[in-house]
Design a protein that fits this description.
Blueprint: E1 11-12, H1 16-19, E2 24-25, E3 33-36, H2 42-52, E4 56-61, H3 85-91, E5 95-98, H4 104-114, E6 119-122, H5 128-131, H6 136-142, E7 147-152, H7 171-177, H8 198-221, E8 225-230, H9 231-238, H10 240-249, E9 266-271, E10 274-279, H11 283-292, H12 296-301, H13 305-310, H14 312-323, H15 328-335, E11 341-343, H16 347-352, H17 354-358, E12 362-365, E13 374-377, H18 401-405
Parallel strand pairs: 3-4, 3-6, 4-5, 6-7, 7-8
Antiparallel strand pairs: 1-2, 9-10, 10-11, 12-13
Length: 411
């Protein structure tokens, strides 16, 4: 069985920059058509990954568009901006179609698209699509090979029914329930949310993996299926260490700052001009660290991981005394190639890092309504045979109606 969609978009290798020409290449998923009914972060990030690998992602937006379109920051006066950075970042390279699924005509247009699609992705509460009579069973009748994927806070009854389904969920809720907040922060501080929206982003990434697995199954069998990823489930999976720790020790893990419960040194240390992290828990790394610190006595007194872990507070103070007298770059230069270490960078540092640009992890895209290009995070998935990455800016609302449906917004 071949993939059903036909993607006319092309993406370009970075080689065109040197030659001044654009050489078209098809992405790994260039024959894939995805109907994306998601909004805000988890769903759009999942379909963004598919788009970055070449899929033709059609963003089917409710009347008025994705809730996050007007969210700041803006490149110019927000009164003239069609969308802000939040929407731009996770909706790049997609096409937009505005549909009211409660309207008979729009519902018929959506079903016509389903017939030629490979994947439908939505992140509504459980039962919402059924309210439009557009649930998986209905869409499967139109397209038996369809992969129907949902991202919800608590999953879908089809894959395991619980009393939480139907409740709303966001990143903060998922991190709280899944145990992530309980182990994040300092021992004397409150439970703390991880900085990035990992409740959304990790769930989205798992959902993308599940979609690709379902597509592989369809290639072998011709069968479509329902794919379900819950934010709560994803956080339990992400915090896997807490599960086995609790099982083995009978104690629920809690916050311990930047350190690790079973490895030392594996921590952040204050430098003269910032902070560095040092991960020298291996005995070879520990010896190299002690040699660099001119402390052979510590290497001799604490020769194995068990002894170092038992004396972690004393040893942490010894290392901290050494790092405070030196700059972060100076520490890392002395440890380079011998002990895993790095400075704690802010985003300005990330923008200045040649590695980030060599790996195309900061990418310029057009911003409608602005007189300059803006930069967004690139695609971390790299392939040698099929290029990946943003294929252009995020779409304006309903921008691609005519090319998708063959009619204007007023017909």
């Amino acid at each position: 069985m071949g993939l059903r969609g036909v993607n006319t978009f092309m993406i370009y290798s970075k080689g065109f920059a040197a030659s001044g020409k654009r050489w078209p290449y098809m992405g790994a998923l260039s024959s894939l058509r995805v109907l994306d009914l998601t909004q805000v972060l988890a769903g759009p990030y999942c379909t963004m990954l598919l788009a970055d690998m070449g899929a033709d992602v059609v963003k089917v937006e409710r009347p008025g568009g994705d809730l996050i379109r007007p969210n700041p920051p803006f490149a110019e006066d927000p009164a003239t901006e069609p969308y802000g950075g939040y929407f731009q970042s996770v909706n790049r390279g997609k096409r937009s179609l505005e549909l009211d699924l409660g309207d008979d005509g729009d519902r018929a247009d959506f079903l016509s698209l389903v017939e030629g699609a490979d994947v439908v992705v939505e992140n509504y509460r459980a039962g919402t699509m059924e309210g439009f009579d557009l649930g998986y069973e209905t869409l499967r009748e139109r397209n038996p090979e369809l992969i129907y994927s949902s991202i919800r806070g608590f999953g879908d009854p089809r894959t395991g029914e619980t009393d939480r389904q139907g409740q709303p969920s966001y990143d903060l809720i998922a991190q709280a329930l899944g145990g992530v907040m309980e182990i994040t922060g300092h021992p004397d501080g409150p439970p703390t949310k991880a900085g990035p929206g990992i409740g959304d982003l990790f769930t989205a990434t798992l959902n993308c993996v599940a979609i690709l697995g379902a597509l592989y199954h369809r290639e072998r069998t011709g069968e479509g299926q329902y794919v379900d990823t819950a934010m709560y489930d994803a956080m339990v999976s992400l915090a896997e260490r807490t599960i086995y720790q609790h099982s083995y020790t009978g104690e629920p893990p809690t916050r311990q700052g930047n350190s690790h419960p079973t490895l030392f040194p594996f921590d952040a240390f204050e430098a003269a001009d910032g902070h560095v992290v040092i991960a020298g828990f291996g005995t070879n790394h520990w010896r190299a660290l002690c040699e660099t610190m001119d402390r052979p006595d510590l290497a001799a007194d604490y020769p194995d991981p068990e002894s170092r872990l038992a004396a972690r507070e004393r040893l942490r103070a010894e290392i901290a005394d050494w790092t405070r007298e030196r700059t972060a770059d100076g520490i890392c230069a002395r440890l380079e190639g011998r002990v895993p270490a790095a400075p704690v960078q802010n985003t300005e540092d990330v923008f200045a890092d040649p590695h980030v640009h060599a790996r195309e992890m900061i990418v310029p895209v057009d911003q409608p309504g602005a007189d300059r290009r803006v930069e967004i995070a690139g695609c971390p998935i790299k392939m040698t045979g099929t290029p990946t990455g943003p294929r252009g800016r995020a779409p304006l609302l309903d921008e691609h109606r005519e090319e998708l449906l063959g009619k204007s917004a007023h017909e």
